Amino acid sequence: MSDQQRGAGKPGQGGMGPGSFGFGPGRGGPAGMGMPVQKAKNFKETLRRLIGYLKPYRGKLLVVFLTAVLSTVFSILGPKIMGEATTELFEGLMGKINGVPGSAVDYGYIADILLVLAVLYVISALFGYIQQYVMAGVAQRTVASLRKDVNEKLERLPLKFYDSRTHGEILSRAVNDVDNISSTLQQSLTQFITSIVTLVGVVVMMLTISPLLTLITIVTLPLSFIAIKAIAGKSQTYFKDQQASLGELNGHVEEMYTGHPVVKAFGYERKSVAKFDGVNERLYQSGWRAQFVSGMIMPIMGVIGNIGYVLVSVAGGLLVLHQRITIGDVQAFISYSRQFAQPITQTAQIANIIQSTIASAERVFELLDETEEVPEAANALAVASPGASAGTAFAPKGNVRFEHVKFGYNEDAPLIADMNIDVSSGQTIAIVGPTGAGKTTLINLLMRFYELNGGRITIDGTDITELKRGDLRSLFGMVLQDTWLFNGTIRDNIAYGRAGATEEDVVRAARAAYADHFIRTLPEGYDTVLNEEASNISQGQKQLLTIARAILADPAILILDEATSSVDTRTEAHIQRAMNTLMEGRTSFVIAHRLSTIREADLILVMNQGAVIEQGSHEELLAQGGFYADLYQSQFSGRRQATIDAV
């Protein structure tokens, strides 16, 4: 995975996922210009699907549209009416100056105009409030529905989906992309409607005042477009460099943070700082260039706008002198000409944002279209709860059978060709073999994390495909070498093993796992809150908690993957006794790397390249003098040599 990928898509790390840290496509620099816009592969189809989420709110969207139009229309009428007040004031004053009999300023008329203006602006603000209120509800409900679909989809996706993608990529789609859609629906959609209505309304009002002045205003537009295009094209290059440097910097900081002890141990602090300085300098160079170039857009547009302002003022003055229009109309027109460029700029900005949003929506829909797990059997058997009468439910005993199982992560690269295993209830089965032999794959197939390419797996004669996945997995208790504990109290982490577990059940399980003593030595005891990485307790203590959790689950079948590899020798002896008690009467699969720990197993399966090449008891396999015997002797010889060297 590249630095850019590693830095992108992780929430809160300023990566390149859309919308993160405000650097999302279409939102960089002033007016959103210059930033490279992420485009959808199929804009129309993605837009159609996104609109599908809005269909239940058609009535409310119509209200949003109407209120947006009315709010804008009432706001647009303001300058024209204000111009009438200016005309009345100007004509009255000029009449007095010129000594026209009966000339006076009609302050009552002006007051009436100001009152009408106040009413118009209040009505405009009221419609704007209604528009934002209704749209907020529509946007959040739409995104809530989309988030719900994404979450449910993630629950239905097979394990191979997660194995083939980085966590950052999945989080980027489920969080950043959905947030980008939410932001656009909430703000940009109503702003887009307002900008279009404002543009049309302003042009209509300018035409009613003076077609000539309207022509002068429109003539200045090409200058703005040429300037924006030239600057945006130049700044895009710098923004791309900025994105690349930002992703590289995020990746470097993440690596140095997570691997801080290793960096310290090998004395790489100076090299790490030097690399950071280099990347940071590149980010600075591309960043200031991108911001400087894109920041030129507004001043240049201001200059072009002022040119138009001067032309309109001069031409308007001449028209007033020739009594073609009133001075109040000139004032209103100048106000409209100022408003004229704004909706165009906003529309261009929103168009970029919408492009980015549709691209985000496409990424979310790609996730929603991923191939799901094979559906449950229509007449899937339910698993009987402990102590309940069997009836029609499946009551497990623990007999497991692999019959001509074939499997490969890729169809063109089979890993398991023809596996046959017969395990009786209550047996302890050890699985040994070199790295990549297929030991963990066998467990994944047993728990139906992956679907078989051929053959079948049965538990007590029942094909595992005839059971619901949730019920099937409830039969197993797992203690893995890589511990998994969530952010919460120690009590909650142990109780995770069984729903409705009481305080006594939790303490009993902790004692059986020899974890009760160290838990009570902690300041908060069982109420101690584990942090996100559970780094406030040792690795061995984490393993004890996962063992306690498995003991509490009281499963029919146990899966142990070097469960005692992270604890000291004395604790290992305690754990082994607890495990022996736990495994009594239960079928247990033990993935072993230290062969000395599985001598007492009822059956040892020796795997290599996806096949079971030897099976039997410890003594039988040693007597055969085959692959297992070589593995065992190499480990034993290595330990003996290490002891001699130590002496």
From TrEMBL:
<keyword id="KW-1003">Cell membrane</keyword>
<feature type="transmembrane region" description="Helical">
    <location>
        <begin position="107"/>
        <end position="130"/>
    </location>
</feature>
<feature type="transmembrane region" description="Helical">
    <location>
        <begin position="292"/>
        <end position="321"/>
    </location>
</feature>
<dbReference type="Pfam" id="PF00005">
    <property type="entry name" value="ABC_tran"/>
</dbReference>
<keyword id="KW-0067">ATP-binding</keyword>
<feature type="domain" description="ABC transmembrane type-1">
    <location>
        <begin position="62"/>
        <end position="356"/>
    </location>
</feature>
<feature type="compositionally biased region" description="Gly residues">
    <location>
        <begin position="9"/>
        <end position="21"/>
    </location>
</feature>
<keyword id="KW-1133">Transmembrane helix</keyword>
<feature type="transmembrane region" description="Helical">
    <location>
        <begin position="57"/>
        <end position="77"/>
    </location>
</feature>
<feature type="transmembrane region" description="Helical">
    <location>
        <begin position="213"/>
        <end position="232"/>
    </location>
</feature>
<dbReference type="InterPro" id="IPR036640">
    <property type="entry name" value="ABC1_TM_sf"/>
</dbReference>
<dbReference type="GO" id="GO:0005524">
    <property type="term" value="F:ATP binding"/>
</dbReference>
<dbReference type="GO" id="GO:0005886">
    <property type="term" value="C:plasma membrane"/>
</dbReference>
<feature type="domain" description="ABC transporter">
    <location>
        <begin position="400"/>
        <end position="634"/>
    </location>
</feature>
<protein>
    <submittedName>
        <fullName>ATP-binding cassette subfamily B protein</fullName>
    </submittedName>
</protein>
<feature type="region of interest" description="Disordered">
    <location>
        <begin position="1"/>
        <end position="21"/>
    </location>
</feature>
<keyword id="KW-0813">Transport</keyword>
<dbReference type="GO" id="GO:0015421">
    <property type="term" value="F:ABC-type oligopeptide transporter activity"/>
</dbReference>
<dbReference type="Pfam" id="PF00664">
    <property type="entry name" value="ABC_membrane"/>
</dbReference>
<dbReference type="InterPro" id="IPR011527">
    <property type="entry name" value="ABC1_TM_dom"/>
</dbReference>
<dbReference type="InterPro" id="IPR017871">
    <property type="entry name" value="ABC_transporter-like_CS"/>
</dbReference>
<keyword id="KW-0547">Nucleotide-binding</keyword>
<dbReference type="InterPro" id="IPR039421">
    <property type="entry name" value="Type_1_exporter"/>
</dbReference>
<dbReference type="GO" id="GO:0016887">
    <property type="term" value="F:ATP hydrolysis activity"/>
</dbReference>
<dbReference type="InterPro" id="IPR027417">
    <property type="entry name" value="P-loop_NTPase"/>
</dbReference>
<dbReference type="InterPro" id="IPR003593">
    <property type="entry name" value="AAA+_ATPase"/>
</dbReference>
<keyword id="KW-0812">Transmembrane</keyword>
<feature type="transmembrane region" description="Helical">
    <location>
        <begin position="189"/>
        <end position="207"/>
    </location>
</feature>
<keyword id="KW-0472">Membrane</keyword>
<dbReference type="InterPro" id="IPR003439">
    <property type="entry name" value="ABC_transporter-like_ATP-bd"/>
</dbReference>
